[in-house]
Amino acid sequence: xxxxxxxxxxxxxxxxxxxxxxxxxxxxxxxxxxxxxxxxxxxxxxxxxxxxxxxxxxxxxxxxxxxxxxxxxxxxxxxxxxxxxxxxxxxxxxxxxxxxxxxxxxxxxxxxxxxxxxxxxxxxxxxxxxxxxxxxxxxxxxxxxxxxxxxxxxxxxxxxxxxxxxxxxxxxxxxxxxxxxxxxxxxxxxxxxxxxxxxxxxxxxxxxxxxxxxxxxxxxxxxxxxxxxxxxxxxxxxxxxxxxxxxxxxxxxxxxxxxxxxxxxxxxxxxxxxxxxxxxxxxxxxxxxxxxxxxxxxxxxxxxxxxxxxxxxxxxxxxxxxxxxxxxxxxxxxxxxxxxxxxxxxxxxxxxxxxx
Length: 356
Ligand code: NAP
Ligand code: ZN
What we know:
six-stranded parallel beta sheet, 17 strands, globular
């Protein structure tokens, strides 16, 4: 890989300077515009639980690390090969910004499954010059046009950013497992991902049952569109779920007791675990009983991301967001850790990064 960095765009972001460190203002540079690049001024950035994992739990490969892979912004400048975007366009960028482009998943626009591993929006290495990618908790971004998306008409720009990770990560498996009318679908963990999953599964026509550990959320989750809400800490209520579900989408961010949810699957049904815990608390015999399946899924590629955005606009699906100032990011991380957010923090960067 060439190590010939050409940086000419001064940038400022919120960075963790070391693993577990507080986020602080940090100046760096974005690359000079290449032929197919789009440079944007960032307006809003969603705060995903993966950002917290990256900073605190050792997912981060290299520090300083600027998190953020749910990005809404306005185009400032485009490279000479870009006709799809122009200055002033409202756009979105998600979790990946490049891929090998030649493997089968890439050729099928499923770049999140690129066999050479996609280039992550932050904490990755640019495929052309080898420079480190820095995320959306910052004032600007430069990305190849293939991984930049127009905001469809009808979507609110203030809340659209979380669709680019939380949205696509749940939309993709719901589509893959053909969720629709006649199916009973469980959504486990009603946070950033889970609350959107409730909305999508409902719009797709399924009977939606939400599982939460938070009694205070029960009433709100019903309003999000769940037909039923089950308190998953209630053993009696969980015992009644056995052999009920055609599909379960699990968005829990930590290792937890998965056995009652595996028991809740019908014959041949699948539980798709999105949370990427270090290990599973699971009795394999429960898979044997009922030939049940445990699977996972990773965000989504460019084709499905465009489809998800159109679907969201058509069905009026947007995340519930709590807007924060850049200076409030460390408090937002603390609250996210304590499961105290309804349901996604979004950093308002319209006034820049503010004072130190
Ligand atoms: P989040 O907003 O924190 O939501 C996670 C939810 O899990 C919480 O709201 C809570 O829901 C539930 N929960 C938390 N601790 C729990 C525990 N100990 N036991 C049972 N339930 C618990 O996080 P998020 O941003 O939605 O992300 C969810 C997970 O998906 C994270 O681990 C993230 O890294 C991962 N992720 C994966 C992908 C992928 O490609 N597979 C993409 C993005 C994110 P209740 O209060 O309703 O119980
Ligand atoms: Zn994410």
